[in-house]
Amino acid sequence: MTALHTDDFRREAVRIALTCGLTRRQVASDLRVGLSTLSKWIQRSRPDDKPPAHDIDLAKENDRLRKANRLLLQEREIFKKPTVFFAKQSK
């Protein structure tokens, strides 16, 4: 049996899946591996393979920034409507 992915690839895939803030399905798709394969790799990872605290902090910061970005996009959409209205009124 030949291994399609190296141990380093598997470890990195597990680290990404546990810290990036994306769903496992999204990570599996991005890495072009099956969801069940990625899930098995995560289950098999040893306790000492836990992501470093720095990676966890980055994941939390990414989540915070995504939420802030979503809020800013919503606010921008709200402010667009009056701008379009007043632009039409001034013509």
UniProtKB/TrEMBL annotation:
It holds the Pfam family HTH_Tnp_1. One of its GO terms (biological process) is DNA transposition. GO terms for molecular function: DNA binding; transposase activity. This is Transposase. It comes from Paenochrobactrum gallinarii.
